[in-house]
Specification:
Elements (H helix, E strand, L loop, with lengths): L1 H12 L13 H4 L7 E8 L2 E9 L4 E3 L2 E2 L6 H13 L1 H4 L2 E8 L3 H20 L2 H10 L33
Length: about 170
């Protein structure tokens, strides 16, 4: 019994018989890292869904891992840049990564621009920026709720409202 307590005391002491004591932290070690601000915003258009992640950075904007300046066709690129052009000072201090899926290229472009604008407004909490976006184009902040009408049963290849042509006689 006495031998077991001696072994326990020895195990608690550490190497060379010193008792482990908490080491006082230096001032450099006590400085906590500032938590980075990250905002996630959504944008939708038809079947397309875009998710924008905004964080402090150098002003880089990527759509599906491609820089926004490299997106083709140019009109699609300009459409996505509208939110950026209306707030150039705010964009310089942040990095925006947009992931878009579903739908066609124009639906994806509109979903991405909505996500970028919403992310900027949520990141800066700026009512003046929100008003600027609403005055320019309401669809920059509010996703378009319109969806395509589904096909009716038994006419899967025809459109949703197509009927057989009426005969005069």
């Amino acid at each position: 019994m006495a031998e077991e307590t001696q072994q326990l005391e020895h195990a608690r002491q550490g190497p060379k018989g010193h008792v482990d004591e908490p080491i006082a932290a230096t001032p450099e070690q006590t400085i906590k890292k500032k938590k980075k601000k990250i905002i996630i915003a959504l944008g939708k258009r038809k079947k397309s869904v875009a998710r924008a992640i905004i964080r402090e950075g150098k002003g880089r904007i990527r759509i599906n891992s491609v820089l926004i300046d490299l997106i083709q066709p140019r009109y699609r690129q300009m459409r996505m840049k509208e939110a950026v052009m209306l707030a150039p000072e705010q964009v310089k201090g942040v990095d925006i990564e947009v992931t878009v899926s579903g739908g066609g290229i124009w639906g994806q472009a509109d979903a991405a621009r909505t996500a970028i604008a919403n992310a900027l407004v949520m990141f800066y909490k700026d009512n003046a920026l929100k008003a600027k976006y609403l005055d320019y184009d309401r669809s920059l902040l509010i996703s378009d709720a319109r969806r395509t009408e589904p096909h009716k049963p038994s006419r899967s290849s025809a459109g949703p409202r197509r009927t057989k042509q009426q005969s005069k006689r």
